[in-house]
Write a structure and sequence with these properties.
Layout: H1 2-10, E1 17-21, H2 24-30, H3 34-39, H4 48-60, E2 65-69, H5 77-90, H6 110-124, H7 129-146, H8 152-158, H9 166-176, H10 199-203, H11 208-214, H12 226-230, H13 246-265, H14 272-295, H15 305-312
Parallel strand pairs: 1-2
Helix pairs in contact: 1-4, 9-13, 13-14, 13-15, 14-15
Length: 341
């Protein structure tokens, strides 16, 4: 098998190889037993390390490699020569060194192993029907509102956006998976309209304050729904020429993620003015968080001060009067606009 490894590596990967082997053990390991052995990582095989190197070398080749089993040495010069070389090698005092390293592109890293394990486990997990329904609602609503179709993976990726805080991201994830005890699970009745308090009823019944704040951006308003709210990270706003308005998209993501989480936290006992005050306080705190985060930015994906300025400028009170570098200057007091835009 060592000779097979050396000969395989000595030939260009684009050239087909025809190898005649006298070892049934080697031929079987490389042909009919190969799928099962590779599936279990060659566990239990006497020459596991050598076979793994040989299989990796074969996979790295683009051309085909053919193996043929030769029976007996009589009348076969090639087989006789191979046997003589084997005897010569057996007489050596020290064995020849054979490189046992695999091409880096074929090495299994921890990350690749983790992804492989996750994919195997994901196939065994039974899909939650309500999660599928909610995801379909989000995707269809995004198509209807923003005119762009996203995939399920895009939705999951969007809730991990850098513009969504961890606590809001967790809330959105749980909502999509229908993990809260609301709706038919709890059968709580809304004291205002006598309807069952489902998550849809709780989140999308009131949007007055968010709508008034969004008016300052001069971007079109979209009625609340599964797509614009829980798929906020997938929002798309374009100019007349068709280019993306990233600051507006990021602001939409921030406001809607904070809004749905705040609506979930508050209860009917709060008056309208108390709800308004809590909303303004939530947005102000989020602005402060972005300012502090931007000051500590180091990586390429971190939020920068200029990003904060572009995103928040439409809804900041007297933004044009702010001094240069206001984002990183803790001595500058900044707040969002109040009232109807």
């Amino acid at each position: 098998m060592t000779a097979t490894l050396v000969s395989t590596r000595s030939v260009d990967g684009l050239t087909p190889i025809y190898q005649h082997l006298s070892s049934k053990y080697a031929v079987d390991s490389l042909t009919k037993l190969h799928p099962k052995l590779e599936a279990v990582g060659f566990l239990g095989h006497p020459d596991a390390a050598l076979l793994a190197m040989l299989v990796a070398s074969l996979w790295a080749r683009r051309a085909r490699t053919f193996f043929k089993l030769l029976k007996g040495r009589k009348g076969n010069p090639a087989n006789i020569s191979a046997f003589e070389l084997a005897l010569e090698g057996a007489k050596k005092c020290a064995p020849d060194e054979v490189t046992m390293e695999v091409d880096p592109m074929w090495k299994l890293t921890g990350g690749l192993a983790y992804r492989a394990i996750r994919e195997i486990k994901a196939k065994k997990v039974k899909k939650w029907s309500q999660s599928t329904t909610n995801l379909n609602n989000i995707i269809d609503n995004i198509v209807e509102v923003f005119g762009t179709r996203v995939s399920v993976s895009d939705v999951w990726k969007s809730i991990r956006s850098r513009h969504i805080t961890r606590i809001c991201s967790q809330f959105m994830w749980k909502t999509i998976h229908d993990l809260f005890m609301v709706g038919e699970r709890w059968l709580a009745i809304c004291p205002v309209c006598d309807n069952v308090e489902s998550m849809d009823h709780i989140l999308f019944r009131c949007d007055a304050e968010l709508k008034s704040l969004w008016a300052y951006t001069q971007e079109p308003w979209t009625e609340p729904g599964w797509g614009p709210a829980l798929g906020a990270g997938c929002a798309v706003f374009k100019t007349e020429k068709g280019s993306r308005k990233l600051p507006s998209e990021n602001l939409w993501t921030i406001l809607w993620s904070e809004a749905v989480h705040l609506i979930w936290k508050i209860s009917e006992q709060f008056s309208e003015q108390e709800v308004v005050n809590r909303w303004h306080s939530t947005v102000d705190r989020r602005l402060t968080l972005d300012r502090r985060t931007a000051v500590l930015a180091k990586g390429k994906k971190d939020l920068r001060p200029r990003d904060v300025d572009r995103i928040w400028s439409p809804i900041i009170e007297d933004h044009k009067k702010l001094p240069e570098g206001w984002v990183g200057n803790s001595g500058v007091l900044v707040g969002i606009k109040r009232g109807q835009g």
